[in-house]
């Protein structure tokens, strides 16, 4: 490793340990009701009465399980166990199986529907906790959940996965993840994170059924979710894959570029890996050409003409984290120094504008003047330690690896 990459690696490790992980251990434990708090504003004020989301809890579990696997530090294990225990005790649906989408501050079901996106993150977290500890119970929970997703969430006619089901695993009209998402049967976002969860599970559970489902899902994403030019994901589709949204999500495109490659590489199918490599590089090229500013920051979204709505012109924390990894992945695949520079510029933008050097963790994002979005939360159902910690884990590992 050359000196500049080694220095970058050291900075990432310091950011991971002393800012991100320390922040969540110090500021987010719920000492009243157990587990972790549901919401905190940008000035570190805990919001009383906030619901707790499955996504937040699963991402905390994944983060600290990963930290324990890498560093073997007891404080990381304690945080992971806290998240795991709360997940099993409060989010598990003892009557119908699976996990609730939201619980209230006391840990009772608040939104009991089965959101496949949230279940996929739970598989991801449980598999990682098993990977870190060797414990069999989280692996069994992950395998059971995989079978539930396949039984109820999989579309046997058109392939892919529907967005959500009722608590009883029946069809529901309440499909969307959040108020800003379309209420459609299928989304890129859910498929991307089922892919991620299944990849994590296959790493520790070499089931032939899981292998076939993961390979099918990669093909589904290439055939139905990636656009005809191979440059961007479609965001929302109906049951038969008819496209319902014209928006481009640069963050998901660059994130998907490396997650698809990771999944195909794990499977080891050379033909499939060749298809994915082509798509990953095409998506990285498009994100770099269309979504990145000279300061290194990547935009959230644009329409198909490339127009970014000036009234909603923000650059959030998570696309910056994914851009750093995605561009570095493209550099590893090609040796193209443009991608290395783009990854370095992503980190520089993160360090200059996204990291909260005063209060800790990362700002939600910045506005057109590069000022932090002060009204956005520091912790919420969606503001979690997973994108930023994972970017650090990935880059720390990758900076010590040779090019492909």
How are the strands of the largest sheet arranged? 1-2-3
- Poorly predicted runs are none
Sheet/helix structural class: mainly alpha
**Using only CA atoms, what is the Rg?**
20 Å
Q: How many distinct folded domains?
A: 1
| Tally of separate helices | 12
Q: How much of the sequence is in beta strands? A: 5-15%
Under the CATH scheme, the architecture is: Alpha/alpha barrel
- Report the end-to-end length measured between terminal Cα atoms: 15 Å
Principal-axis shape? globular
Number of strands: 11
Main pleated sheet: 3 strands, antiparallel
**CATH topology (level 3) name:** Glycosyltransferase
Mean pLDDT: 95
CATH class value: Mainly Alpha
Query: What portion of residues is helical?
Result: 40-55%
* Series of secondary-structure elements, N-terminal to C-terminal: HEHHEEEHHEEHHEEHHEEHHEH
Q: Can you put this structure into words, describing what you see?
A:
- The protein is mostly helical and 404 residues long.
- It has a single domain, classed as Alpha/alpha barrel (Glycosyltransferase).
- Helix content is 55%, strand content 6%.
- It contains twelve helices and eleven strands.
- A three-stranded antiparallel sheet has the order 1-2-3. It has a two-stranded antiparallel ribbon with strand order 4-5. A two-stranded antiparallel sheet has the order 6-7.
- A hairpin with a 5-residue loop joins strand 2 (102-103) and strand 3.
- Helix 4 packs parallel to helix 6 and helix 8 (250-267) runs antiparallel to helix 9 (270-291).
- The radius of gyration is 20 Å and the shape is globular.
- The model has no long low-confidence stretch (mean pLDDT 95).
């Amino acid at each position: 490793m050359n000196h500049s990459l080694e220095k970058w690696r050291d900075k990432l490790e310091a950011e991971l340990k002393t800012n991100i992980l320390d922040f969540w251990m110090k500021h987010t434990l719920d000492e009243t009701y157990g587990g972790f708090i549901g919401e905190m504003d940008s000035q570190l004020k805990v919001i009383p009465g906030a619901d707790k989301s499955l996504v937040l809890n699963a991402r905390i579990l994944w983060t600290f399980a990963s930290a324990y696997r890498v560093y073997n530090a007891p404080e990381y294990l304690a945080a992971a166990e806290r998240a795991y225990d709360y997940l099993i005790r409060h989010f598990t649906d003892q009557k119908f199986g699976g996990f609730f989408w939201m619980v209230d501050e006391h840990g009772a079901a608040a939104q009991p529907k089965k959101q496949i996106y949230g279940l996929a993150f739970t598989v991801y977290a449980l598999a990682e906790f098993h990977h870190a500890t060797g414990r069999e119970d989280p692996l069994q929970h992950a395998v059971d959940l995989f079978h539930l997703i396949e039984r109820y969430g999989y579309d046997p006619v058109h392939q892919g996965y529907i967005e959500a089901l009722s608590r009883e695993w029946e069809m529901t009209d309440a499909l969307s993840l959040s108020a800003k998402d379309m209420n459609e049967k299928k989304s890129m976002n859910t498929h991307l994170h089922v892919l991620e969860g299944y990849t994590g599970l296959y790493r520790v559970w070499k089931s032939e059924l899981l292998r076939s489902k993961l390979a099918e899902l990669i093909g589904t994403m290439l055939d139905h979710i990636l656009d005809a030019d191979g440059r961007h994901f479609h965001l929302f589709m109906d049951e038969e894959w008819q496209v319902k949204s014209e928006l481009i999500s640069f963050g998901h495109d660059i994130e998907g570029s490396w997650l698809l490659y990771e999944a195909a590489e794990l499977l080891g199918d050379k033909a499939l890996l060749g298809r994915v490599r082509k798509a990953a590089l095409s998506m990285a090229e498009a994100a770099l050409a269309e979504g990145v500013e000279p300061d290194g920051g990547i935009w959230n979204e644009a329409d198909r003409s490339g127009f970014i709505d000036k009234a909603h012109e923000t650059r959030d924390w998570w696309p910056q984290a994914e851009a750093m990894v995605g561009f570095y992945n493209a550099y590893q695949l090609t040796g193209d120094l443009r991608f290395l520079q783009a990854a370095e510029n992503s980190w520089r933008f993160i360090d200059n504008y996204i990291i909260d050097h005063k209060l800790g963790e990362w700002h939600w994002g910045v506005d057109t003047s590069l000022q932090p979005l002060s009204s956005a939360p520091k912790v919420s159902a969606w503001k979690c330690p997973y994108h930023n910690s994972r970017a650090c884990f990935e880059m720390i590992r990758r900076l010590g690896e040779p090019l492909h």
